[in-house]
Amino acid sequence: MKNTFEVRYASSPRDFKMYDTTRLREEFLIQNLMEPDAVNLVYTHYDRYIAGGAVPVKSALKLETIDPLKAAYFLERRELGIINVGGSGSVLVDGEKYELAYKEALYVGRENKEIIFNSDDATNPAKFYLNSAPAHKVFPTKKISQKEAEVVELGAMETANARTIRKLIVNSIVETCQVQMGMTELKPGSVWNTMPAHVHDRRMEVYFYFEVPEDQAVCHFIGEPQETRHIWMANNEAVISPPWSIHSGSATSNYTFIWGMAGENLDYGDMDFCKINELK
């Protein structure tokens, strides 16, 4: 079993203006999340958020604490959101088993000591995408199926942004302290997500792109509305979006992405929209 982590510090929007392509990717792009028989984590100082992946193939994987947490176990002072983007699998939470099929989610509350990931079939392993943030209170662990998701249809084919939003780990479905997660599926022929773009200074966000065809790519937009940059991304890659930044993307094919966020509030509608014709 392999457990790795890295730490990324917060960046000023003033410094951001000076970043070249390499520096942009080093600061915000998260690659190699879905490595077989490994738990890979990135700890960012934006709201102390952690994004990661766990892919159990040959054997089960345990979520271990990491040094930046200074904790006896991973969830001593944290909560965890999990969405399976691979084959069917299960998560053991202090001995209780939760089966997760493709695109199903699990919220794990603070103070659960042992989290173990398993795949049902090693030839088609589960791929658990993980988001975690500090938690001030203990809430019950809860599985959220696709049927339990809160579904919103947005966009239109005429503007190439027809999409289905499935809210999975949100306060209208499950009690959380900070973490919110959901999934946006672009319909065939549509490529734009989160457009019109927005920012929310009260929350940071991480996008995880998947169901991107092997020979296609996503162009993710980042930066202040009047000072934007882009990062080209492949399948199963994530990107950190600071509170001062827009988070939007377009691709060479339709795709799906998971949005995860934490911060000052749990108001999904807390967004400051940016007019499309004023973006620069």
UniProtKB/TrEMBL annotation:
Pathway the protein takes part in: Glycan metabolism; pectin degradation; 2-dehydro-3-deoxy-D-gluconate from pectin: step 4/5
List the catalysed reactions. Answer: 5-dehydro-4-deoxy-D-glucuronate = 3-deoxy-D-glycero-2,5-hexodiulosonate
Q: Which InterPro entries match?
A: KduI (IPR007045), KduI/IolB_isomerase (IPR021120), KduI_N (IPR027449), RmlC-like_jellyroll (IPR014710), RmlC_Cupin_sf (IPR011051)
EC? 5.3.1.17
Gene3D superfamilies reported in the protein's UniProt record: Jelly Rolls (2.60.120.10), pectin degrading enzyme 5-keto 4- deoxyuronate isomerase, domain 1 (2.60.120.520)
List required co-factors: Zn(2+)
Q: Which GO terms describe its molecular function?
A: 4-deoxy-L-threo-5-hexosulose-uronate ketol-isomerase activity
Cofactor binding note of this UniProt entry: Binds 1 zinc ion per subunit.
Which keywords belong to this entry?
Answer: Isomerase, Metal-binding, Zinc
Q: Name one Pfam family in it.
A: KduI
Positions of Zn(2+) binding:
198, 200, 205, 247
User: Which PANTHER family does UniProt cross-reference here?
Assistant: 4-DEOXY-L-THREO-5-HEXOSULOSE-URONATE KETOL-ISOMERASE (PTHR38461:SF1)
Summarizing the function annotation, the protein's role is: Catalyzes the isomerization of 5-dehydro-4-deoxy-D-glucuronate to 3-deoxy-D-glycero-2,5-hexodiulosonate.
Q: What protein family is recorded?
A: Belongs to the KduI family.
Q: What is the name of this protein?
A: 4-deoxy-L-threo-5-hexosulose-uronate ketol-isomerase
- Lineage start: Bacteria, Pseudomonadati, Bacteroidota, Flavobacteriia, Flavobacteriales
